[in-house]
Amino acid sequence: MKQSRARGARRSVFMFGLAMVTACFFSIVFFGSPGVSWADKTVRISIATGGTGGVWYPYGGVMANVISKYLPNVEATAEVTAASVDNARLLGAQKADLALMLGDVGFAAHEGQGMFKEKIPMRNLASLYASVTHVICRADKGIKSVADLKGRRISTGAPGSATEVVACRVLEAYGIDPEKEVTRDRLSATESAGALKDGKIDAYFWVGGIPTASVMDLAATPGVKISLIDHGEIVPKLKAKYGPIYFKISCPANTYSGVDRDVSTVSAGNYLVCHEKMDRKLAYDIVKVLFEHLDELIAGHKIAKELTLQKAVIGSPIPYHPGAEQFYKEKGLKIEY
Fold first, then answer.
1. SS3 content of the chain, % helix, strand, coil (to 5)
2. Domain assignments of the chain as residue spans, ordered by start
3. Distance between alpha carbon 213 and the CA centroid of its chain, in Å?
4. CB count in 10 Å sphere of residue 259
5. Tens digits of residue pLDDT in 199-254
6. What is the rounded CA–CA span in Å between residue 220 and residue 217?
7. For the domain 131-268, what is the CATH superfamily, name and number?
8. Taking the model in full, what pTM does it have?
């Protein structure tokens, strides 16, 4: 009797073990290795953008929606940031996967120049559009030139933004020391517009696509008439000091209420960039899906009208990612630096 019970116990243990092995086998065959679920295979990517009052945050949001909608197992999210400088550092620390970047900051980050102590290994995916430098004041302040900002209280943009970089460079080109000869507030686009409206500052800088929502809202405010200051004349000085990053462009008349003339400005390109270690296929798929669903990007933000295959491969200050290069090559396009 005891031997019969022992044999029964051994058989039960054997059958239990066999059942466990079988279960593990089917788990591996049908669901992958133990401990890996389908949810674990989802790729989550963050897009570093800018402040809520500018173009980058809503544009990045539209990109995130298109990527999430059309790339299987990829979830993208647009993150509010202080813009270019902040974005470059987030990318370098691999705390962001994609980033919107102004050309001058992207070049400095890639080369390890200026505010960047080390080279940030980033790569371009697409040239998106040209940014316009706005120098905005109230029309009743008597400010006719950037030179008139000397001794004034102004906002040069949020800390860590491309706006701050360009503002300081433009001021210096006009012979103004941004640290000593103006009273500087460092406000975002929305905060700057509010401060100007409330009379807390005399003028502010903003670098972004046109039209910019916060500037439009300011210009449409009852009792407020804004003026945009010409400054495109100093592009040669900027090029001589910082390289072929900047170019002259006009902000067309009536872009903003009350500004009924073309305004000469400093411009720089805007780019969608990634870390150089981004998976080649993922980079390829991101570029592909954005162009395949360009109509949805445009429906979400009209600045996307500036994104074309021909423009996407022109003027980048940093190298393109191999995945992006593959996509453009398949389209018969040659990248032009």
1. 45, 20, 35
2. 38-129+270-330, 131-268
3. 17
4. 20
5. 999 999 999 888 899 999 999 999 999 999 999 999 999 989 988 789 899 999 99
6. 5
7. Periplasmic binding protein-like II (3.40.190.10)
8. 0.73
